[in-house]
Automatic annotation (TrEMBL):
<keyword id="KW-1133">Transmembrane helix</keyword>
<feature type="transmembrane region" description="Helical">
    <location>
        <begin position="183"/>
        <end position="205"/>
    </location>
</feature>
<keyword id="KW-0812">Transmembrane</keyword>
<protein>
    <submittedName>
        <fullName>ZIP family metal transporter</fullName>
    </submittedName>
</protein>
<keyword id="KW-1003">Cell membrane</keyword>
<feature type="transmembrane region" description="Helical">
    <location>
        <begin position="45"/>
        <end position="64"/>
    </location>
</feature>
<keyword id="KW-0862">Zinc</keyword>
<feature type="transmembrane region" description="Helical">
    <location>
        <begin position="217"/>
        <end position="237"/>
    </location>
</feature>
<feature type="transmembrane region" description="Helical">
    <location>
        <begin position="153"/>
        <end position="177"/>
    </location>
</feature>
<keyword id="KW-0472">Membrane</keyword>
<dbReference type="GO" id="GO:0005385">
    <property type="term" value="F:zinc ion transmembrane transporter activity"/>
</dbReference>
<comment type="similarity">
    <text>Belongs to the ZIP transporter (TC 2.A.5) family.</text>
</comment>
<dbReference type="InterPro" id="IPR003689">
    <property type="entry name" value="ZIP"/>
</dbReference>
<dbReference type="GO" id="GO:0005886">
    <property type="term" value="C:plasma membrane"/>
</dbReference>
<feature type="transmembrane region" description="Helical">
    <location>
        <begin position="76"/>
        <end position="97"/>
    </location>
</feature>
<feature type="transmembrane region" description="Helical">
    <location>
        <begin position="243"/>
        <end position="264"/>
    </location>
</feature>
<dbReference type="Pfam" id="PF02535">
    <property type="entry name" value="Zip"/>
</dbReference>
């Protein structure tokens, strides 16, 4: 079998120069776009970047640790699920009910509005989920690098990247509302949850044989959708405050679906149910304290 010939140096240099020029133009256009964003969208962008940075930070152990135990994966997933659950309850559903009542709705009307928004958010994530088949595709620890295992790992990366979108939107909707302190708490909680999420993405790739740096890099990249979603959510609410209850409830529905459909089943798939459940309760308490005692 003939070896693959390397490209001529001039082609490599030309391609690198074109890529660098394209990156500079993209950064320039991005800077111009950011300059025109409303103040709350700027804050949402910072919150989304903070969450993306937390995702990247979660991948760092993959660069240094030699081995990971499956129980550690499941505990990390459970902790993240508990944080997301508390954030959904205290930072999204309750503010959505309050926003709906402030807009003039009665108790029943506010409840129906929030319930409808939750269903819409769930339906949107289900629609996105059709792009990848994300159920139970995280490889087990130590799995060999077979084509099937590699496919499952890449599907998991895609699923996490897609599911990061509603988290980013939730951050943006929070900043687009009226309580910036609540938005800060929500962004902090999602960022905490993103740390184990970044780790499990890197572990999924590492477990099928990819290198440490590549696995960590892809784990970090999976969180970059969150700043985009944060800006989009803030701009949506900035366009019309009447959308605030629907936006908060929609983000809550999206996160609830991700928790029930992906995080909890995946955390318990390998039999460490008590570890996963206990970690979920701890995560819920941590986020509850952040949202009720420190906000």
């Amino acid at each position: 079998m003939q070896g693959v010939r390397s490209l001529p140096a001039w082609r490599v240099l030309t391609g690198t120069a074109i890529a660098a020029l394209g990156l500079l133009l993209l950064l320039r256009d991005g800077a111009l776009l950011l300059a025109d964003l409303p103040p709350l969208a700027h804050m949402a962008l910072i919150g989304g970047l903070w969450a993306a940075a937390a995702t990247a930070a979660g991948t760092l152990p993959i660069l240094f640790a030699q081995n990971f135990f499956q129980r550690s994966y499941d505990a990390a997933l459970g902790l993240g699920g508990g944080i997301m659950l508390a954030a959904t309850s205290f930072s999204l559903v309750l503010p959505a009910l309050s926003a709906s009542r402030n807009a003039g709705a009665g108790a029943i009307g506010a409840s129906l509005t929030v319930g409808g928004g939750i269903l819409i958010g769930m339906a949107l994530v289900m629609l996105l989920g059709h792009l990848v088949h994300s159920e139970r595709i995280l490889p087990a620890a130590g799995q060999r690098r077979t084509p099937a295992a590699m496919k499952r790992a890449w599907l998991f990366v895609a699923a996490v990247a897609i599911h990061n979108l509603p988290e980013g939107v939730a951050i943006g909707v929070g900043y687009g509302g009226v309580d910036v302190a609540k938005a800060h708490t929500l962004a902090t909680g999602i960022a905490i949850q993103d740390i184990p999420e970044g780790l499990v993405v890197a572990l999924a790739l590492r477990s099928v044989g990819y290198g440490r740096v590549f696995s960590a890099l892809l784990g970090a990249v999976s969180g970059l959708i969150e700043p985009v979603g944060a800006v989009a959510g803030a701009l949506l609410i900035d366009a019309s405050l009447t959308l605030l209850p629907w936006g908060l409830a929609g983000a809550a529905g999206a996160m609830l679906y991700v928790i029930c459909h992906d995080v909890v089943p995946e955390a318990q798939r390998h039999g460490h149910c008590n570890t996963a459940a206990g970690s979920l309760v701890v995560g819920f308490i941590v986020m509850m304290v952040l949202d009720t005692a420190l906000a």
